[in-house]
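Colleagues,

For the teaching module next term, I've prepared a clean inverse folding example: a structure given as tokens, and then the sequence designed for it. I'd like students to try predicting residues themselves before seeing the answer, so please don't circulate the second half yet.
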């Protein structure tokens, strides 16, 4: 997800991975605990251990997603750094690195946007194959009527971790492809509109993004998913501001 980079704090975790500078804002761990506390659970799984495993799943899953973006940037000659924060993560291209074009073209930008979700979905698919080898799985439900989400007859810590990681990587990366700006799907939509309509494509993509965000917010509200509803309505408001002539053109 690409929102805004949070300011640096003395509590940031900083390290390097595959040649990329990675900064983890403390807010990332707060949201990880909130969402990860029930991700790894079972009658024989210690609650504290389950929370730690849930935080670990979020950390690895979001990092892999952002690495997908960062590696795509590198492929097109751009250096980038990664920031994990309370709303997910960012792969931020650095200016003034080597000899490269001034900006990515629309096709390259689409490649960068898709690389993150594809990395996460590949990880999720790989974990499904691993889980099938260590546990007997039965479909629990089908995401969008197509993608099976599994439960396991044995609720060991390993299978609970695998199931949690599969759910996070499949669901979050598919949702991230919804055409809501600034999610990756919204970035792809924007670039496609600009390719086919250079004069008015950006405005049309923002209108589609705003309408989609409102629809998803209503669906979240009717399904009593408060976080999804608030997030989508907030995105709809942000897109409305982009269309507001008094607010300039922050998307360009």
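(Answer key — instructors only)
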């Amino acid at each position: 997800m690409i929102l805004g980079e949070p300011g640096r704090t003395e509590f940031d975790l900083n390290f390097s991975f595959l040649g990329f500078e990675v900064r983890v804002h403390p807010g990332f761990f707060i949201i990880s605990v909130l969402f990860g506390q029930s991700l790894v659970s079972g009658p024989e799984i210690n609650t504290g251990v389950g929370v730690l495993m849930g935080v670990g799943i979020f950390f690895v899953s979001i990092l892999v997603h952002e690495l997908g973006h960062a590696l795509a940037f590198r492929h097109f000659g751009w250096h980038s750094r990664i920031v994990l924060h309370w709303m997910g993560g960012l792969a931020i291209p650095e200016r003034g690195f080597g000899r490269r074009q001034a900006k990515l073209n629309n096709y390259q930008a689409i490649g960068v946007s898709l690389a993150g979700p594809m990395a996460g979905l590949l990880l999720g698919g790989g974990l499904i194959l691993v889980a099938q080898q260590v546990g007997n799985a039965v479909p629990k439900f089908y995401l969008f009527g197509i993608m099976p989400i599994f439960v396991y007859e044995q609720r060991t810590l390993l299978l609970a971790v695998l199931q949690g990681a599969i759910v996070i990587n499949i669901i979050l990366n598919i949702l991230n492809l919804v055409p809501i700006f600034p999610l990756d799907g919204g970035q792809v939509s924007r670039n496609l509109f600009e390719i086919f309509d250079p004069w008015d494509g950006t405005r049309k993509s923002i209108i589609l993004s705003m309408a989609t965000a409102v629809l998803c917010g209503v669906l979240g509200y009717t399904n009593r998913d408060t976080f999804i509803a608030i997030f989508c309505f907030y995105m709809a408001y942000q897109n409305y501001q982009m269309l507001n002539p008094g607010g300039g053109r922050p998307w360009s």
